[in-house]
Design a protein that fits this description.
heterotrimer, B: 276 residues, mainly alpha, C: 295 residues, MetI-like fold, 2 domains, 14 helices, 78% helix
């Protein structure tokens, strides 16, 4: 009865399959000695949290006796926030900008809207800024923002609609142009239009852009997170790229938050909160600085002062009236970014 | 038109076709292996036994092990009902079965987000009962079943239609039950077609990227299938590892092609049962 | 996928023939209710109900909003890129796929079996793998791209790159559609035409092409449909520039990532309707070719 036994196997497989399908249901609350949390983060923090997680797990083990496993998910900041809104059960989010976490609070109901006041420094345990990464020796002599709009300069930056870093890039360029032209918004818009007309590839995330610039050899300058620029230098050899600091840039504060609704469901509120608070400790700040993020702890900042040049930085609140306003004005559908692209359309 | 110029034209055509295939098919395949072995065998091996890579391999196997059998069962049922019976609306039904072939993988992922996402139809209910579908294994399985849905059915329907129902009717008139008839008469008749469909179904199930990417959530070591893991490694500047995992998938593709060719040569099976 | 290409062809023909033969006696074969019930249930659960979400969501938007989201200038540009590159790739494949099928069917040469097996590589190779491999080859510093870079021609990150990826994806659809028809055509017809003094071009255009046209069109439509929706292999090599090298499936994802579900579903609806249209077209081609063969 060869066929029958084959059929049995088939039936068994189907049954097993349905069971597996029914049985898989996310992170159950884990009792006893093991605990898991999920940190949903943006693109360039892979190396940072890879370094932080084992340190915190050791600290947590010492404090509570629990074995902690931190699961990670990385992607463009907007994409990650969207996934959390759609039900990705993050216990903590560590994203590129406050607007994305605001959206989670507004749409998911899993997070209080005053989340940003719950941790020090607007819930941003580290900061960064936007710099230029150019090819060795800076062959196109790119020194500042106005060099980016010259004809024949190819600029690599991701899509601000999906990438957090790209939104900081856009706003930094805007702030520069506005200041240069005596506060004229029309001149600023014209400037960013020229800048984006020089962009040959618009990746959806910061990592995609770095790969395009570094690995595929496209473009003369990459607008990048400072940490990403340092990392690219480190990964691909010091000699291949130079970092150029523009005269004006923007203070980027990537915020963090516990997603209460999910953490409560997983029974992981305590560890999730401790995880984020740990980021503010000198030990973590040291790791943060080593991964090229600007630490907020003054002692650590002083120690790494030579790594991070003092720049003239505008802030999102001071220059643009906060993320809600900036998002609406620049990046919403029909906003300035859409308009300049409709005009650029070649 | 003399013979010589015909031979020359023939060589020219063969050369053109081979050049096209070399440029468009062979070169990409070779480049995967070259890039994977760029830093030597040690780096290649290390990339494959990385825990995250292993868990991606495990997940991919699990997803295929669930999706493929379900599609086998469906494919046989559908082919039986469509090929052995007449009913109105048959071609509409066949068109519906074909749909997943022409739907963009991204849309395939999107529909499950609209159904099971927290903002979707069943989202609130699922959350209340703490059931996770998307951003977990069930969602990946569902998206995979969707994109591989027609493979087995599409192989079997023409085959079984072509074979008609005389064999089955004879068996039934000799007193066999319907189920016995299926096992002893139909199944042996369609086995090569079934195997053929399963091979391609499996290749797609293990290799699907777009649909799975939308519903995965990209949790390292948890919801990353092999194709997604390739993308992640690629984004981590870890090109050797990315291409190493990609080369495993390419090997899978080659094995699929070899098995498929064996079915064709050894058993004289022509897909689609084309008895022209 | 294999079956997708050639079976619609044979498939639609087979049941019709069958139906004609067996209308007379009702089937004695059991299990219709059971298998049909299960088929419909499974089909509804996995395909129809999930797909309906897209239409229902779009229907809830109202016409004005739907048109604004589904046919915004950027969306229209993305359709142009997706449909244009898919069409160009299918066209290239129609020429080279036909050539390849011809060579495989008519000529013997060493390694023919290997070549024949390789044709199906794009069906078996995961699209993401194809994507990174093609990008590595066609980028300015890649194996092929380096020869075009000095000429000022950029392959990757332009619509040309997208087309190259879609040529890879679409090749087997054409070859496998045309192959069985070429196999059926005996060389005698061509020899007869030759002996009557026809030149090779006349033989091709008057004898071969008319015979294979329906299958060539079917293969073309299948390759085109696949190309329009393709994501994995294209996403690495597309430049993603709005209005220039942004494909429609990427725009869906972009809309989702901006929390714009309405925009995403509107574009998805347009693409779904296009898929239906192509499927319908394939059916019409087959009906036409059947009619032509019978009449």
């Amino acid at each position: 009865m060869r066929h029958i036994s084959r059929l049995r196997i088939l039936c068994a497989a189907v049954t097993a399959a349905s069971l597996a399908l029914a049985g898989c249901s996310g992170n159950e609350p884990k009792g006893g000695n093991a605990v898991e949390i999920l940190n949903v983060s943006y693109d360039p923090t892979r190396e940072l949290y890879e370094a932080i997680n084992p340190k915190f797990a050791a600290a947590w083990k010492a404090e509570s006796g629990q074995d902690l496993k931190v699961n990670m998910s990385h992607g463009g900041s907007g994409k990650q926030a969207r996934a959390v809104i759609d039900g990705l059960s993050a216990d903590v989010v560590t994203l590129a900008l406050a607007y994305d976490i605001d959206e989670i609070a507004a749409k998911g109901g899993k997070l209080a809207t005053n989340w940003q006041s719950r941790l020090p420094h607007n819930s941003a345990p580290y900061s960064s800024t936007i710099v230029f990464l150019v090819r060795k020796g800076n062959p196109k002599a790119i020194r500042d923002w106005n060099d980016l709009v010259k004809p024949g300069v190819a600029v690599i930056t991701p899509n601000p609609k999906t990438s957090g870093g790209a939104r900081w890039n856009f706003l930094a360029a805007w702030a520069y142009a506005k200041a240069q032209n005596g506060g004229s918004e029309a001149a600023a818009q014209d400037f960013v239009k020229k800048l984006y007309a020089n962009v040959p590839v618009l990746d959806s995330g910061a990592r995609g852009s770095t790969t395009t610039f570094v690995e595929r050899g496209i473009g003369d300058v990459l607008l990048a997170w400072e940490n990403e620029a340092f990392l690219a230098q480190k990964e691909f050899g010091e000699g291949k790229f130079d970092i150029v600091a523009p005269s004006v840039s923007i203070l980027a504060e990537p915020p963090v938050a516990v997603i209460d609704g999910n953490a409560k469901r997983h029974g992981a509120e305590k560890v999730a909160e401790a995880y984020l608070k740990y980021l503010y400790t000198p030990e973590a700040q040291e790791i943060i600085a080593q991964n090229y993020y600007r630490p907020i702890d003054e002692n650590v900042a002083a120690k790494y002062a030579s790594t991070f040049p003092k720049l003239n930085l505008v802030t999102i609140d001071g220059e643009f009236g906060g993320w809600q306003a900036a998002q609406k004005k620049f990046f919403a559908d029909g906003g300035i970014f859409d308009r300049i692209f409709t005009e650029i359309k070649r | 038109m003399n013979t010589l110029s015909f031979i020359r034209a023939r060589h020219l055509l063969i050369a053109a076709a081979l050049a096209f295939i070399a440029l468009f098919l062979v070169l990409p395949l070779v480049s995967v292996f070259v890039a994977a072995l760029q830093k030597g065998l040690a780096a290649y091996g290390a990339a494959l036994i990385d825990p995250d890579a292993l868990s991606a391999i495990r997940l991919t196997l699990l997803v295929a092990a669930i999706a493929v059998p379900l599609n086998i069962v469906f494919g046989v049922l559908a082919a039986w009902s469509i090929a052995k019976f007449d009913f109105p609306g048959k071609s509409l039904l066949v068109t519906f079965i074909d749909l997943p072939f022409s739907v963009s993988p991204v849309v395939a992922g999107l529909i499950y987000v609209l159904m099971f996402g927290a903002q979707g139809w069943f989202g609130p209910w699922l959350q209340e009962h703490d059931v996770q579908i998307i951003f977990a294994v069930p969602g990946i399985v569902l998206a995979t079943i969707f994109v591989t849905f027609p493979f087995v059915a599409r192989e079997l329907i023409p085959l079984m239609s072509e074979q008609g129902r005389d064999d089955e009717e004879a068996a039934l008139s000799l007193g066999a039950s319907g189920f016995q008839t299926f096992l002893r008469v139909t199944l042996p008749n369609i086995r090569w077609g079934l195997l053929y469909g399963v091979l391609l179904c499996n290749a797609r199930a293990m290799g699907e990227f777009g649909a799975v990417s939308v519903v995965s959530g990209h949790l390292r070591g948890i919801t990353n299938t092999m194709p997604l893991h390739v993308e992640i490694l690629y984004n981590e500047y870890n090109f050797v590892a990315a291409f190493a995992v990609a080369s495993l998938l390419a090997l899978l593709a080659l094995v699929t092609l070899v098995l498929k060719s064996i079915v064709e040569w050894r058993f004289g099976y022509h897909h689609g049962s084309a008895k022209h | 996928m294999e079956n997708a290409l050639s079976s619609p062809l044979q498939m639609s023909a087979a049941p019709v023939r069958h139906a004609r033969r067996s209308k007379r006696n009702r089937s004695v074969i059991p299990g219709f209710g059971l298998t049909m019930g299960l088929t419909l249930a499974w089909l509804s659960l996995i395909v129809l109900i999930p797909l309906s979400t897209v239409f229902i969501r779009s229907a809830g938007m109202g016409w004005a909003d739907f048109l604004a989201a589904g046919f915004s200038p950027r969306a229209v540009a993305a359709y142009t890129v997706s449909f244009g590159t898919a069409f160009a790739a299918a066209l290239v494949n129609a020429v080279f796929g036909l050539l390849t099928a011809w060579v495989i069917v008519r000529y013997d040469f060493p390694g023919k079996r290997v070549v024949n097996a390789l044709i199906d590589l794009p069906f078996a190779l995961p699209t993401a793998v194809a994507g990174i491999a093609l990008t590595a080859i066609y980028a300015g510093n890649g194996w092929v791209g380096q020869f075009f870079e000095p000429l000022g021609i950029q392959l990757a990150y332009t619509p040309v790159g997208i087309t190259l990826a879609l040529i890879f994806i679409g090749l087997p659809f054409i070859v496998r559609s045309v192959e069985p028809v070429l196999e059926d055509m005996s060389a005698e017809v061509e020899e007869a035409a030759l002996s009557l003094g026809a030149n090779p071009w006349q033989i091709f255009s008057r004898v071969i092409l008319p015979a294979i046209l329906p299958s060539l069109l079917t293969g073309f439509a299948l390759a085109f449909a696949r190309g329009v929706g393709e994501y994995g292999s294209v996403i690495f090599i597309a430049g993603n520039m709005p209005f220039k090298s942004e494909i429609a499936p990427l725009l869906i994802i972009t809309q989702l990532e901006q929390y714009d579900y309405a925009g995403a579903t509107a574009i998805a609806t347009v693409m779904l309707v296009a898929s239906f249209a192509v499927l319908l077209l394939i059916n019409l081609i087959q009906a036409w070719s059947r009619r032509r063969m019978n009449g």
